[in-house]
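Pipeline run #58 for the internal structure catalog. This entry was flagged by the ingest filter as a single-chain record with no existing model, so it goes straight to prediction. Upstream metadata was stripped on purpose; only the residue string is passed forward. Reviewer on rotation: M.T. Logging verbosity set to normal.
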Amino acid sequence: MTIRIDPHDIGEVIRKLAVFAGLAEQATDALVQGGALVEYQDGEFLIRQGDPSDFALILIVGAADVLVETTYGTANLASLEAPALVGEIGVFTNAGRTASIQAKTPIRAVRLGRDELHEFGQRNPAFLSRMMLQLGRRLETVNKAIGFYSHALAALERNEFDVKLLDELTQPLPELADFSRSFLRFAQQILLRRAQRAEMANARAIQAGMLPGPHLLERCSGYVDVQAFMRPAKDVGGDLYDFFLVDEDHLALAVGDVCGKGIPAALFMAMTQLVMRYMLRHEPDVGSAATAGNALLAADNPETMFTTWFCGILDLRSGVLSWSSCGHHSPLILRSGGQVEKISTRSLPLGIEISAKYATNSLTLTPGDRIVFFTDGFTDAVDGDDKRFGDDGLEQTVAILRSLPSQDFIGKLVERVDNFAGTTPQFDDMTALIATVVARKAAQSAGP
């Protein structure tokens, strides 16, 4: 709304601004007389970004926010309080509005048109000189800030950033105060995320350290070839694989999948792996180990975490694989003659029912046979149309790749699933273990 003006009532406020300081009262009163007194309500826009710069405003009462529209949303660049001159740069440079100004309290201001300001500047060179000086100081501060931010970014990239660097901007010009605080929050968030990444890296290292290494197979390398792969969907995952010699003649092979993802699943995975390693070494058979391990995992499990788990113990002399399944997928058995077999695995996962019992079953593997353990990160992978790779897709792929060496087999299997998913993010952890029977132990040696 527009109101009648009494220039003598607001002249003193106008002259508090640096660009008008020292000018004759008659000159500033005449400027105000040539303008119009306007009022804005809380939330109303005084200036909108992108509009022509055909007027400036002298804020007499109230406060406003300077907002910049970006492709990512609106950013609050600064806050202004009366008295303040806004929009004058665009008026003298014929540039469009580079920001919006929105009232955050009721505002009273003097609106000055382009012609009035140009004429006032011609009659009062000191005004133009002071305005150029103010603009120069503003540009100097912006350049220093840009230089500082560039330095800070380089320090962040070198991992040498110290929040104390921001002390240099604790007393910026009002136009940059809010931006400096935003940069401080931004830097603090970067440092927080860096600390979190470091923690996750440590968690990944701990998890990787729990996985078995190839050295565990040195004593049986002439009888069985074992290769494994695990890729979490997040920084750490809830899948597990394991292999180790129970004794000189028996090799344990296991894979598991904990419900959920991230840190909670990784913790339960670690617990499951430790418990089952112990049970497999101290129980008479794999079914008894699963039963005893389940009772321990389910006894104190307030979060109702659970693990699907499949374990087989391969007798290196006879080729008999004693196995037990705890709610996990059937592995794929690739016979040397070309057949692909599956086995029935209906049972409860570990950790659900404390009294659950698990049976020991068996099958025989001959030299040239392979067994492929996997988690549902393979079968549940989806493409851009939300189509699953599925059990059929996995079985067909395995049949195509079956003649490859174990290391190449796993690499190509993962590659096929990744190509299927395309740009769709990995949703679940992916783990696979392949064991190939090379020879019966008794056929080569009676000892290790």
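catalog note: The longest strand covers residues 73-81.
catalog note: Residues 146-203 form one domain.
status: ready for reviewer M.T.
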